[in-house]
Structure formats: C-alpha cells, structure tokens
C-alpha cells in the first residue's frame, strides 16, 4: 500500500456544487495532516491543517479519521477559482520524521 | 507569502553540463528542502538541510548535491545533468522539524535538459 493515496481525478464539478475527496495514509504513526492547493504551473500553497476534531475555514471543511486512516476535504458552493490540484500531506514523526505528499486530486469547476 | 525566491526560474541546458539552482529565504527558517515534481510522481524530496552545513539525503538524491553555507541560501547542484533530471524543482522552508511544521514553497524552477 502506498504511503499516501489520492484519487487523481479529474473531478469535473458544476459551479455551486459541493465536492469532496479523500486521502488515505498507511503509516499509523502519522502525526499531522494538511491539505495544500496547487494551481497550474505554480507552487503548492497551504490550504488548511487537518485536526482530529475536524476544522472549517469558510467553504472548506477538513476531517481526519484515524481509525480508518484517511483525511477528507469538502468544498461547498464551489467557485471557478477553486479549480486546482489538491495535495494531501502527511507528516510522519518518530524515527522517520518525514513529510509525504500525495500526488494530488485535480478539480475542475465548470461554469 | 513566505519570503522565498528561486533562481533561475527557467533554464535549458545540455546533457553533461553542471547546473546550480539557488533558493533564498528571508524568513530565517531552520529547515530548507529541495523537491522535484514530475507528472505521475508528485513531489519527491531530493535533499534537505536542518541548519548551516547540515544536510541529508531525500528519496531521490542520486545525481544531486547540496550546500548551505548561510541560513538564507540553499543550493542544489546537478553535477552532470541528464535528460531524466528535466523537471520542476521546488525549494521549501519550515521553521520546525518536518513532522511538526508546515512547509512553504518557492515559485519553482523549470529545468530542461536536452
């Protein structure tokens, strides 16, 4: 099983719709989790951290399920500007102490 | 935005030539990283630094070397460029250890090796 897995998409979603995608991770020692956003030909940028209790930032909600080892990102009332690739990021602590990036999920918001 | 710059932003070179990419930060962060990003592979760590003159290898370090003589600068050198090193290279920084802190990325360098 890969360390971090994401559905590559693309997800083609009409403007205004709600879209959700998951990311699974294999290492139970994973300590912290993030979603990054990457626009075409740009650098990845932090979108939000993912906390055990879940967190919300405007139209974006991130959740963590440690028992099933996945994190999720929900985007409500999607905008054209949400079109991007969303990277799941998992930080593994302990002896490994490393960060693993998923390959990303491409999202296209359709007018 | 975090103060990270990369130079050059684009470079075309020929197989066998040495290439050096520079990453410069103004955030005084301890950790600096070099990644490459290729279709189908995502971001892969090449080398990282945890302080001046302190560096370590990542998962794809073969053919690359790094140096960090100052907190603000992290150099990536391709000793003899090959076509397989054609990629987009991103520098990143973090203030704390990789497992505890988020990373902030520079704008990237597009390298083409002919």
Describe the structure.
- The complex is a heterodimer of chains A (111) and B (114).
- Chain A is mainly β and 111 residues long.
- In chain A, the strands form 2 sheets. In chain A, strands 2, 4, 5, 9, 10 and 11 form a 6-stranded mixed β-sheet that branches. Chain A has a 5-stranded antiparallel β-sheet with strand order 1-3-8-7-6, with no helix packed on it.
- The model of chain A has no long low-confidence stretch (mean pLDDT 92).
- Chain A contains no helices and 11 strands.
- In chain A, 0% of the residues lie in helices and 58% in strands.
- Chain A has strands at residues 4-6, 11-14, 19-25, 30-38, 44-50, 55-57, 60-65, 70-75, 84-92, 98-101, 105-110.
- Chain B has no helices and 11 strands.
- Chain B has strands spanning 4-7, 10-13, 19-25, 31-38, 42-51, 54-57, 64-70, 73-78, 87-94, 104-105, 109-113.
- In chain B, strand 4 and strand 5 (42-51) form a beta hairpin.
- The termini of chain B are far apart.
- Chain A binds chain B through residues 31-32, 34, 42-46, 49, 87, 91-94, 96-99, 101-104, and chain B through 40-43, 45, 90, 97-100, 102-108.
> Poorly predicted ranges of chain A (pLDDT <50, ≥5 residues)?
none
Largest interface by Cβ-Cβ < 8 Å? A-B, 22 and 17 residues
Main beta sheet strand tally, sense and closure of chain B:
7 strands, mixed
Q: What distance separates the N and C termini of chain B?
A: 34 Å
Q: What spatial form of chain A do the alpha-carbon principal axes imply? A: globular
One letter per element, helices H and strands E, the order of chain B comes to EEEEEEEEEEE
Q: Supply the number of helical segments of chain B.
A: 0
**Beta-strand percentage range of chain B:** over 45%
Radius of gyration of chain A: 14 Å
Name the shape of chain B in a single word: globular
Class computed from helices, strands and strand pairing of chain B: mainly beta
The biggest beta sheet of chain A is recorded as:
6 strands, mixed
Total number of beta strands of chain B: 11
Radius of gyration of chain B: 13 Å
Q: Quaternary state, please?
A: heterodimer
Q: What is the helix content of chain B?
A: under 10%
């Amino acid at each position: 099983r890969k360390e971090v897995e994401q559905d590559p998409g693309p997800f083609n979603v009409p403007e205004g719709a709600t879209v959700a995608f998951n990311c699974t991770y294999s290492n139970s020692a994973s300590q912290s989790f993030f979603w990054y956003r990457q626009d075409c030909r740009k650098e990845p940028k932090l979108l939000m951290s993912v906390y055990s209790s879940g967190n919300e930032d405007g139209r974006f909600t991130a959740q963590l399920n440690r028992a099933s080892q996945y994190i999720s990102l929900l985007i409500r009332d999607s905008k054209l500007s949400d079109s991007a690739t969303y990277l799941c990021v998992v930080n593994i602590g302990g002896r490994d102490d490393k960060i693993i990036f998923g390959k990303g999920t491409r999202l296209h918001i359709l007018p | 935005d975090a103060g990270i710059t990369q130079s050059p932003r684009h470079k075309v070179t020929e197989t066998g030539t040495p290439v050096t990419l520079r990453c410069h930060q103004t955030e005084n962060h301890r950790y600096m990283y070099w990644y490459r990003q290729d279709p189908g592979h995502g971001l892969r760590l090449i080398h990282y630094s945890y302080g001046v003159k302190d560096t370590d290898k990542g998962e794809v370090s073969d053919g690359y070397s790094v140096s960090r003589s100052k907190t603000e600068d992290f150099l990536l050198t391709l000793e003899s460029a090959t076509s397989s090193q054609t990629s987009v290279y991103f520098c990143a920084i973090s203030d704390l250890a990789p497992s505890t802190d988020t990373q902030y990325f520079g704008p990237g360098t597009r390298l083409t090796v002919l």
